[in-house]
Amino acid sequence: MSSLTAKEVLTQETIVLNPGMKVFEVAGILRTCRIGGAPVVDEQRNVVGVITVTDLFRFIDKLKERLSESKGTGAPEVHKIRLETCVGDIMTRNIISVKANTLLDEILDLMLRKNIHTLPVTAEDGKKIVGIIGRHDVCLAYLMGQAITA
């Protein structure tokens, strides 16, 4: 059992997005940074959602469906939607996060049970983001022996 907590292995320099950012802009950020998603925060850095490549795929699928239903005549409308849709319109709002004092064993279990790759880490208030912890962080802590205790 590990006595390490999220705050001891998290990544502090987290890319965060805001709900008003345009979806096409976020797609570029995720690609450039080579990440599959990022927390969405408000002006006080409270986590309000998460946007992932899966969310973007669902959005693209809806655009394709709309275009198909219009038999191609809806292209201007679809183009407008593509340019004007904001992160807040398609982000996942029911997020799972952990607090900074959550034990690494609990995080490992949560990631396995829910098939989660990355978790926002919040302050004790459960709102303000302090970092992010991914499967790579957890693996490294265990495989380097930092998290293995008798």
Q: What can you tell me about this protein's structure?
A:
With 150 residues, the protein is an alpha+beta fold. The protein has one domain (6-143): CBS-domain (Roll), CATH 3.10.580.10. It has helices at 6-9, 23-33, 53-69, 75-84, 87-90, 104-114, 135-143, and strands at 37-41, 47-52, 98-99, 118-122, 129-134. The strands form two sheets. Strands 3-4-5 form a three-stranded mixed beta sheet. Strand 3 (98-99), helix 6 and strand 4 form a beta-alpha-beta unit. Helix 3 (53-69) runs antiparallel to helix 4 (75-84). The longest helix has 17 residues, at 53-69. The radius of gyration is 18 Å and the shape is elongated. The termini are close together.
Helices and strands, with pairings:
Layout: H1 6-9, H2 23-33, E1 37-41, E2 47-52, H3 53-69, H4 75-84, H5 87-90, E3 98-99, H6 104-114, E4 118-122, E5 129-134, H7 135-143
Parallel strand pairs: 3-4
Antiparallel strand pairs: 1-2, 4-5
